[in-house]
Amino acid sequence: MSDEPEPGTGDPSSPAASKLVITSRLEAIDEARRWASTQMVEHGLPESWVIELELALTEALSNVMRHAYEGAEDQEIHLALLVDERGVRLDIRDFGVTFDFESLGPVDLENPQEGGYGVFMIESLVDDVAREPGRPRGNWLRLTKLRPAGD
Amino acid sequence: MEHTTEQVDGVTVITLQGSIDVSQAIELRELLGDRISGAAARVLLDLTNVRLIDSSGIGILVTAHRRAADASAGFALANPSEAVGKVLTMTRTDRLLNVYDSVAEGVAGLSGAAP
């Protein structure tokens, strides 16, 4: 039995997906953004849409580095990206401490804060967020963003 | 973090380049903290060339705004891109922060602010 959710059509865990492994350094976030952006632009997706996915990726990686790896900079994060006619699916897999997104709590938008927007922003920027504890450890996150209407 | 700084009509205009994300958070926090250092401070952050801002960046802007308010200083943003403006709106921090459509308007607004 695989330690990942079952792959299916258009699944980033399929061999057709692009893969990247980065280390858990903050500087690697830019590398991951450029990797994802290049592929989305090559598929003709508009820049404003691409930036939104990049931003969701940034927030997700930041959460992994802070909460799953607790600041350790030498750990692996596996990324898989699939761009197709429907949009983009992006898997983010870490092998650190399993953390509960819900425990990060809701953000109080009526009282601007100095932090805590990350999960809210991820959920606002993509069409679907799926998450599961990694097996045997860590976290698995899938971000799905559909192509803009009329694209 | 790539940036330039110039003085315009008593306003410190800081022009940022690229992305404001968690990897530059400490540098940006220190940069703004150094500039917003007293009641006479007038700081305008030119976001014309900022492509992306994440939640860490938003947090730093909120902190800078409050620091300026506490010190009776002036702090504002100018000319956010569509993507940056969308994040400000999404987080509703556009209701708190002072945002001008252009650097010229920001300089005029801050230089006219009461000390």
What topology does this entry show?
The complex is a heterodimer of chains A (151) and B (115).
Chain A: E1 18-23, H1 28-42, H2 47-68, E2 76-83, E3 87-94, H3 118-125, E4 128-133, E5 139-146
Antiparallel strand pairs in A: 1-2, 2-3, 3-5, 4-5
Chain B: E1 3-8, E2 11-20, H1 25-35, E3 42-53, H2 55-70, E4 74-78, H3 82-90, E5 99-100, H4 103-111
Parallel strand pairs in B: 2-3, 3-4, 4-5
Antiparallel strand pairs in B: 1-2
Helix pairs in contact in B: 1-2
| N-to-C order of helices and strands of chain B | EEHEHEHEH
Main β-sheet, spatial strand arrangement of chain B: 1-2-3-4-5
The helical percent of chain A reads 25-40%
Query: Which residues of chain A form runs of ≥5 with pLDDT under 50?
Result: 1-9
Beta strand % of chain A: 15-25%
Alpha carbon gap, first and last residue of chain A: 38 Å
Query: Strand count, sense and closure of the main sheet of chain B?
Result: 5 strands, mixed
Tally of strands of chain B: 5
What's the order of the H and E elements of chain A? Answer: EHHEEHEE
Low-confidence stretches of chain B: none
Mean pLDDT of chain B: 94
Give your account of this protein's structure.
The complex is a heterodimer of chains A (151) and B (115). Chain A is built from three helices and five strands, in the order E-H-H-E-E-H-E-E. By secondary structure, chain A is of the alpha+beta class. A five-stranded antiparallel beta sheet of chain A has the order 1-2-3-5-4, with helices on one face. In chain A, helix 1 packs antiparallel against helix 2 and helix 2 runs antiparallel to helix 3. The longest helix of chain A has 22 residues. Chain A is globular, with a radius of gyration of 15 Å. The termini of chain A are far apart. In chain A, 39% of the residues are buried. The N terminus of chain A is likely disordered. By secondary structure, chain B is α/β, with parallel strands linked by helices. Chain B is 39% helix and 30% strand. A five-stranded mixed beta sheet of chain B has the order 1-2-3-4-5, with helices on both faces. In chain B, helix 3 links the parallel strand 4 and strand 5. The longest helix of chain B is centred in the middle third of the chain and has 16 residues. Chain B starts with a strand and ends with a helix. The mean pLDDT of chain B is 94. The chains are: A alpha+beta (151), B alpha/beta (115). The interface between A and B is medium-sized, with 27 and 25 residues.
